[in-house]
Amino acid sequence: MDGWTELFNLEAWNQAIDQTGLDVDFYAFRERSYDEVLPWDFVDIGVKKEYLIAENEKAKAAITTRDCRDGCTLCGINETYGRGICFNGSLLHSAHQS
Hints:
Layout: H1 10-20, H2 24-29, H3 49-60, H4 77-81, H5 91-97
């Protein structure tokens, strides 16, 4: 029932963390390896993991990637789902063209 803020009980969570000896800093602040298996790794949206890793490194260096509506950035989704799936026919594509 913690999905709604009116039922969220921080004291209960802190008590449970204390009772179990859970190290929240381990989960919240530790450096993670790109090889680490993450809970959402099974979700496949078509974007290659290598692309996401490269984007993460670019973000750390404050380097941006151009808008893919101006030219494919080779994320891999077109290889997975077919050319133009990203924006062709979408509202975002239409808004970008105007």
